[in-house]
Amino acid sequence: MNNFSPNMLKTFKECPKKYFYRYVQKISVPQKSTPFEKGKKIHALANYYLRGDDISKFEKMISEEELSAWDKLKNNEFFNKTYVNSEYNLSCKIENFWVGGRLDALVKDAENYYILDYKTGSIPQNPKMDYQTMVYLLAVAKFLNIEENLAFVYIDLKNNTNYKIEYNNELENIYIKELTRICQEIQKEKNFKENSLNCKFCEYNKLCHITH
């Protein structure tokens, strides 16, 4: 039985051929890690901090830019709600498919639960319909056995803003329909044709060109 992550679904939507190389043939192409290092450090600090670990030594080891992002997160209203869990793997079954991912954090207050996702770069162009939003909200809703009082919050550390999506029955139905559709499409796909609109900046560009 297939188990799909948000990144797998995004990759297939972007280009089936890219999905084929990355997740079927499992070809890994080396990429520059610099843009991702800040995000990794912030996520690690956040996890230790939320668990109650002493991170004072780590705070002295990060750059000014990283410290600025970290201070924004520490002072964020949602980040300061009651801790439930962090860096937590969660999945759920949608029709005949399993979908899941790794949550940055789950917090709560007296009325609601909040899924937090910290972004040192850009948040999705359409956060409400992003596959990460869909998968995480459905998985947490099923895990907590709730139909409301749940929200997904993108914490945009670059612009120091929040984007909140509140969960409801209407969204649940939309998400289930869309996730079922794309999972079925992936399962039925045989040719994995490339999407030429996304070739220019694709890490598999040269490999794809060779195989034609």
Give a written overview of the molecule.
Helix 1 packs across helix 2 and helix 1 packs antiparallel against helix 6. Helix content is 43%, strand content 22%. The protein contains eight helices and six strands; from the N terminus they run E-H-H-H-H-H-E-E-E-H-E-E-H-H. It has 212 residues and is an alpha/beta fold.
Name of the CATH architecture: Alpha-Beta Complex
- By CATH, the topology is Lambda Exonuclease, Chain A
Count of strand segments: 6
Q: In sequence order, what are the helices and strands, one letter per element? A: EHHHHHEEEHEEHH
What key phrases describe this protein's structure?
single chain, 212 residues, alpha/beta, Lambda Exonuclease, Chain A, 6-stranded mixed β-sheet, 43% helix, globular
Could you give a short description of this structure?
By secondary structure, this protein is an alpha/beta fold.
Set out the fold topology.
Blueprint: E1 3-4, H1 6-14, H2 16-24, H3 34-50, H4 56-59, H5 64-74, E2 82-94, E3 97-108, E4 113-119, H6 131-144, E5 150-156, E6 161-166, H7 169-188, H8 205-211
Parallel strand pairs: 1-3, 4-5
Antiparallel strand pairs: 2-3, 3-4, 5-6
Helix pairs in contact: 1-2, 1-6, 3-5, 6-7
